[in-house]
């Protein structure tokens, strides 16, 4: 192989690695990449907050305005989550459908604080669809768990966050 061929192969490999680790719609890391990001966050001495977010009323957006509008909403929400998570020193990922994940170091005594502030920022209206008058204020329900460096595995933390999200939805 020539130097040019090796360069092209490396570029192709990099694109393939990105494709298997990121959501194609939102460009956020996917579930597999989120585990790697979580492991990266847990190398420090600080506890880590794992928050599972589920968009409220997302099916209604798809049913009312169409799947293109739903996709636009997901992309906008993903961008906001990534920006907000980075501001807190963490990461956002898309798990599936309208389900997102936040991984942030715990900087405060209240583990809900970073996720609560991110949820508040999420509600700024987003214009979606072909009609410029249509805007949606996204809302989400979140369940959180804290990894203290000792108790839990990635799988158990996701399950705990999912259960917490389910309870939060039940309480409204």
Topology overview:
Blueprint lengths: L2 H19 L9 H11 L6 E8 L2 H8 L1 H21 L3 E6 L2 E7 L7 H10 L3 E2 L7 E2 L3 E8 L6 H18 L1
Antiparallel strand pairs: 1-3, 1-6, 2-3, 4-5
Helix pairs in contact: 3-4, 4-5
Structural key phrases:
alpha+beta, two-stranded antiparallel sheet, 6 helices
What does this structure look like?
This protein is α+β, with helices and mostly antiparallel strands. 51% of the residues lie in helices and 19% in strands. It has helices spanning 3-21, 31-41, 58-65, 67-87, 113-122, 154-171, and strands at 48-55, 91-96, 99-105, 126-127, 135-136, 140-147. Helix 3 packs antiparallel against helix 4 (67-87) and helix 4 packs antiparallel against helix 5 (113-122). The N and C termini lie far apart (61 Å). The model has no long low-confidence stretch (mean pLDDT 90).
